[in-house]
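Troubleshooting: if your tokenizer reports a length mismatch, compare your output against this known-good record of 218 residues.
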Amino acid sequence: MRNAIRLLILASIFLLACAETPEPDANDVPQADESTVVDTNAVGESVDDHTTPEASQADDKSAPTSVVVAAERAITSGQPVTVRLPLDDTLVEAIMRHHNDTDTTLRLSLEGVQTPTAQASVRVFLNRPDATLDTPIDDPHYVGDVGFFPSGPEAAGDKNGFLLDLGTTLARFYPESRTRDGHLVLTLLAAPLLETATEGAPEIEIPIESVRLEVIEP
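Known-good structure output:
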């Protein structure tokens, strides 16, 4: 009998204890400090873009300043191609640095030039839109030329790139090299490789994709 009474008393105590224990309130759940919250999106961005400002500035300084213009058509015997290179303030400043620093290079690139079927050359003049095959290469506007020596019909159509130094010619006219509307005008002529081949020579056609001016600084 005593044992039964003792069990009843213990059961009563247990029920009272459960009734007095409060249910957890959602508002009482500890909140994480905002300073310790990790934004996984932010982590992804920082990993992808970890370049420091100093490294970014170094890359900008080493990257060449350039402008590229697509050629409107192929260069042919009777029709030179004129390419107008726009000069923004950044390019003008770089060209000015070239004028005062011999270590700076002004590089002209003829890009995507297709090899013609016959031996020929491309002559380049700066700010001489009226240049013809009769314009001598000792003209102060003369930049340079590139020659083609196709080994056979199978070589025709191959695409090549050619580099010319524009700095020497540009320096002759500095600072008047730029036209009034802020462009450098290049004239590209197709010519037979041999001067004696002018009479009765087949028409030359040299497709070209683009012309690029780069200012390469040390």
